[in-house]
Design a protein that fits this description.
This protein has one domain: 2-Layer Sandwich (Alpha-Beta Plaits). It has 3 helices and 4 strands, in the order αβαββαβ. Strands 2-3-1-4 form a 4-stranded antiparallel β-sheet.
Length: about 110
């Protein structure tokens, strides 16, 4: 970890996404149409396993899920959404929110 800190990649235990080629952060609201437990569990397991996903929450109300991803650029994000997210069984709708500026993080 000290090497990462000296290189400017790690800031006190938090990896800087831009330093590892993932400078674009996107918050995604996901609504699903699935109500059966098997599909819901498969959706959660699959999304949680994606490298791009840095935070993943199931919500009360709408949206059903909140997903935070870190990717290299807009083209990589489009590949993630088109190639991984919207093709999953049960996904009804996604809405993307691009981060303009991170003001506070854990």
């Amino acid at each position: 970890m000290q090497e990462f800190e000296r290189a400017g990649v790690d800031d006190g235990g938090v990896i800087d996404p831009a330093a590892i080629g993932r400078g674009l952060e996107v918050l995604i609201d996901v609504e699903i149409s699935a109500t059966d437990l098997k599909t819901v569990q498969e959706f959660e397991t699959t999304v949680a396993g994606y490298d791009e996903v840095i935070e993943f929450r199931r919500m009360f109300g709408r949206p059903d899920y909140f997903v935070r991803v870190a990717v290299a650029d807009a083209a990589t994000y489009e590949d993630f959404v088109s190639g991984k997210l919207i093709g999953l069984p049960g996904v009804l709708r996604t809405e993307s929110h691009l981060t303009m500026k991170r003001i506070k993080a854990d």
